[in-house]
C-alpha cells in the first residue's frame, strides 16, 4: 500500500465496487492537495504539544479528563491562571487532515477517531440497523466529538436554561447561558455579530459554509411558503428557518481543540497527554476526597495526583463509566460487579438523546444535489485546498436548519418541538460507499430502498424530536475499564415521543409540496418494509421511524445536575459531585433536561461556565484566606 493510500486504511473505510473506487482515488488526491498547498499552515496556531510520560509532573493542581467539547475549554480557561498547573488527559490522538474537511464528517465515523459505541438491541427502534443496534459515534481524539460532528452551531431555546434554573440550579438561566455563549464566540457574519445575541473575538469561529447548492435557497423559500420566517435561530426567537451556521474557520472544521488549545499551546502551566486512557478517579474511601487519577498509556498504568480538583469532561458515556469504575454510582449495580462503593448516586441514569427519522428522501429532477461523482473531483479538491471554498466546505451535507411546531406545541410560545436538518443529498448520495455504514444499516434494507437510486439527485430532511420524554440508562458491562459500557437509550418508551415525531415527519413531507421544492419534482422515496400500512397514515410514518431511527448523537444527562433534594442528581449547581470532595463533572452529562437543538454549542457553554465556577471557588478561597490573615495580624 502506498503512503497516500494509508489514510484510507486508517479511516476504516471498507469500500466496495464503483463508489469505492471513486473514493479510493479522491481521498489520496485530497490529502495530496492539502499537503502540497500546506493547508494546515494557513491556520495561525500549530498543533497542541503532546507531553511525554516521563515529562509529566507527579502532581497538578487540576487534572482534566477528556479533551473534547467541554474539556478543551476547561483546560484552556483554567490555565489562564499562571500559578495553576493543569494536566489535560485525552484517550485519543490528534486531529487529521481529513477530519478538517467539513463534507467528510460521516467518513470519520467508525474510524480510529471514534469510540465506535453501539446501543444495546431494542425491539421497537433501530430495526433497519445491524443487530437492531444504533451506532453511537463519540470522539476519541483531541477535540472529542467536535471533531466527528456536523459542526452545526445551535444554542437551543432560552426556555431550556430557564427550566434548568427553575429545577433548582441557580446561575444556569438563559441570561447566564447567553453570557457564556457570547464569551466563546467569534461570529463571522457581520449582520449577526452586530446584534445583542452574538459575540466577536472569542476563541470559537462561527460562520456559514462558504458554498451552497441551489437547494439551500429553496429550503428557506419553502419555509416562508409554509408561513415560517427566515431568522437567526440563535437570536431573539428560535422558531423559523435558517441557512446553517457552524463551527467553520476559513472553510475548515473549527474543533474545540483547534479553537481553545492551539492558541495556548505554549503555556508552561498546561500539559497535554494524548493516548492516555483514564480508567478511574482515585478517591480516598475514608475522607471521600478525590486525590488523583489512574490512566493507561503505552500499555502501562500510571497514577498522578491532583492538589485541588479532578474534573471529568469525558462526555455522557465515559464520565459515568469512569465514575462507576471509581466507586461512585448506583449501590446495587456496583455491589453486583464487586466494585467497592464509595458514594451511592444515580450515575448513568437520566440518559436522553435526540432521535429522528432518517431516509426521508425526495428525488430531484435536476442536477443540484451533492453526489460522490460530482463533488469528489479535482476542481472541488483544488477549490478547497487552495481557497478554502467549494462543496467540500458543506457541513456533512447539512445546508439548512429549521425549528417548527407540531400540533402538540404552543406556536405562540416560541418553544418548537421539532428540528429539521436539511441535507442536499441522502443516504444514497455516495453510492453506498460509507453513509450506510455510518448509520449501521442492514445491507438488505439499503439494497431495497437506496440501491435503485444510488448516486442520483435527491434532497432529504431529518425531523428530530427536540425534547424526548423517554429516559435511558448507561451501565457498566464489567469491572474492566476497557470494556465498553451498556447503552440503553429506551427510544420511544414514552409513546408521546412517537406521536410528536410523527407530526414532525408530516411537516417535513409538507415542505416537499411547497412551490420551492415542487420545481425539482421532489418525489418521496418509499419504504417497502412499511407498505403493508396505508401510505401517508400515522402507522406508515411510525413504521418508517421504528426502522430508520436515526440518532443525532446528542447523549446527555447521565450525571444530572440538580439541588440536594433531587434524588437523581449526581452533581450540584456548581458541578461538584455529591459526597466527594475535589471532584467535578463538566460536560453534556450534567444537563438535567435536553436542550432544544444540537448539543455542541451548549456543551462549550457548560465548559466556559464550569471553568468560571472553579476559578470563583479557588480564587475567592485565596482572597478570603488573605483577608483572614490580614485581620488576624491587625492590618
Automatic annotation (TrEMBL):
Presence of the UniProt keyword Flavoprotein in the record: yes
Pfam families for the chain: GMC_oxred_C, GMC_oxred_N
Chain's gene name: LOC112906847
InterPro entries given in the database record: FAD/NAD-bd_sf, GMC_OxRdtase, GMC_OxRdtase_N, GMC_OxRtase_C
Annotated Glucose-methanol-choline oxidoreductase N-terminal domain residues: 315-329
Lineage: superkingdom: Eukaryota
GO molecular function terms listed in the Swiss-Prot or TrEMBL record: flavin adenine dinucleotide binding; oxidoreductase activity, acting on CH-OH group of donors
The species this protein was found in: Agrilus planipennis (Emerald ash borer)
Alphabetical keyword list: FAD, Flavoprotein
Co-factor requirement: FAD
Binding annotation for FAD: 141, 278
Entry similarity comment: Belongs to the GMC oxidoreductase family.
Name under which the protein is recorded: Glucose dehydrogenase [FAD, quinone]
Amino acid at each position: 500500500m502506498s503512503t497516500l493510500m494509508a489514510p484510507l486504511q486508517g479511516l476504516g473505510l471498507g469500500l466496495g465496487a464503483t463508489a469505492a473506487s471513486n473514493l479510493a482515488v479522491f481521498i489520496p488526491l485530497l490529502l495530496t492537495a492539502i499537503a502540497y498547498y500546506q493547508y494546515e499552515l494557513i491556520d495561525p496556531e500549530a498543533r497542541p504539544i503532546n507531553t511525554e510520560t516521563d515529562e509529566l509532573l507527579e502532581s497538578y493542581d487540576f487534572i482534566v479528563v477528556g479533551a473534547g467539547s467541554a474539556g478543551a475549554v476547561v483546560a484552556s480557561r483554567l490555565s489562564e491562571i499562571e500559578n495553576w498547573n493543569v494536566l489535560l488527559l485525552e484517550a485519543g490522538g490528534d486531529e487529521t487532515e481529513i477530519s478538517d474537511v467539513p463534507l467528510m464528517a460521516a467518513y470519520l465515523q467508525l474510524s480510529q477517531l471514534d469510540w465506535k459505541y453501539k446501543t444495546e438491541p431494542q425491539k421497537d427502534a433501530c430495526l433497519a440497523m445491524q443487530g437492531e443496534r444504533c451506532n453511537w459515534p463519540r470522539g476519541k481524539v483531541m477535540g472529542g466529538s467536535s471533531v466527528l460532528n456536523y459542526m452545526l452551531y445551535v444554542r437551543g431555546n432560552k426556555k431550556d436554561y430557564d427550566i434548568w434554573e427553575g429545577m433548582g440550579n441557580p446561575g444556569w438561566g438563559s441570561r447566564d447561558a447567553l453570557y457564556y455563549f457570547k464569551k466563546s464566540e467569534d461570529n463571522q457574519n457581520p449582520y449577526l455579530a452586530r446584534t445583542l445575541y452574538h459575540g466577536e473575538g472569542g476563541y470559537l469561529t462561527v460562520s456559514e459554509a462558504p458554498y451552497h447548492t441551489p437547494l439551500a435557497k429553496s429550503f428557506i423559500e419553502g419555509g416562508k411558503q409554509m408561513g415560517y420566517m427566515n431568522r437567526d435561530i440563535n437570536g431573539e426567537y428560535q422558531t423559523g428557518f435558517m441557512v446553517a451556521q457552524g463551527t467553520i474557520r476559513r472553510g475548515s472544521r473549527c474543533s474545540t481543540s483547534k479553537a481553545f488549545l492551539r492558541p495556548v499551546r505554549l503555556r508552561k502551566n498546561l500539559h497535554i497527554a494524548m493516548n492516555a486512557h483514564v480508567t478511574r478517579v482515585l478517591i480516598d474511601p475514608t475522607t471521600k476526597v478525590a486525590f488523583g487519577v489512574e490512566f493507561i498509556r503505552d500499555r502501562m498504568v500510571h497514577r498522578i495526583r491532583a492538589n485541588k480538583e479532578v474534573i471529568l469532561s469525558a462526555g455522557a458515556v465515559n464520565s459515568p463509566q469512569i465514575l462507576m469504575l471509581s466507586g461512585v454510582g448506583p449501590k446495587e449495580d456496583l455491589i453486583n460487579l464487586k466494585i467497592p462503593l464509595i458514594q451511592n448516586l444515580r450515575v448513568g441514569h437520566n440518559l436522553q438523546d435526540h432521535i429522528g427519522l432518517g431516509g426521508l428522501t425526495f428525488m430531484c429532477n435536476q442536477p443540484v444535489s451533492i453526489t460522490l461523482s460530482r463533488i469528489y473531483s479535482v476542481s472541488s479538491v483544488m477549490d478547497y485546498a487552495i481557497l478554502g471554498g467549494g462543496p467540500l466546505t458543506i457541513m456533512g451535507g447539512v445546508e439548512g436548519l429549521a425549528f417548527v411546531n407540531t400540533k402538540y406545541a404552543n406556536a405562540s410560545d416560541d418553544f418548537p418541538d421539532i428540528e429539521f436538518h436539511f441535507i442536499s443529498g441522502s443516504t444514497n448520495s455516495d453510492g453506498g460507499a460509507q453513509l450506510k455504514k455510518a448509520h449501521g444499516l442492514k445491507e438488505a434494507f439499503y439494497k431495497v430502498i437506496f440501491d435503485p437510486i444510488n448516486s442520483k439527485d435527491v434532497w432529504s430532511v431529518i425531523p428530530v424530536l427536540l425534547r424526548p420524554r423517554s429516559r435511558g440508562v448507561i451501565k457498566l458491562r464489567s469491572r474492566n475499564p476497557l470494556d465498553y459500557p451498556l447503552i440503553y437509550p429506551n427510544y420511544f418508551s414514552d409513546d408521546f415521543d412517537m406521536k410528536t415525531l410523527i407530526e414532525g415527519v408530516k411537516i417535513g413531507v409538507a415542505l416537499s409540496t411547497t412551490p420551492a421544492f415542487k420545481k425539482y419534482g421532489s418525489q418521496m422515496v418509499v419504504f417497502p418494509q412499511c407498505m403493508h400500512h396505508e401510505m401517508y397514515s400515522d402507522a406508515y410514518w411510525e413504521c418508517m421511524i421504528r426502522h430508520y431511527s436515526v440518532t443525532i448523537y446528542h447523549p446527555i444527562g447521565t450525571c444530572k445536575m440538580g439541588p440536594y433534594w433531587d434524588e437523581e442528581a449526581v452533581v450540584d449547581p456548581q458541578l461538584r459531585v455529591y459526597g466527594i470532595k475535589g471532584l467535578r463533572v463538566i460536560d453534556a452529562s450534567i444537563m438535567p433536561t435536553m436542550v432544544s437543538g444540537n448539543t455542541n454549542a451548549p456543551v462549550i457553554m457548560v465548559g466556559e461556565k464550569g471553568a468560571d465556577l472553579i476559578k470563583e471557588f479557588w480564587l475567592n478561597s485565596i482572597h478570603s484566606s488573605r483577608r483572614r490573615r490580614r485581620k488576624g495580624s491587625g492590618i
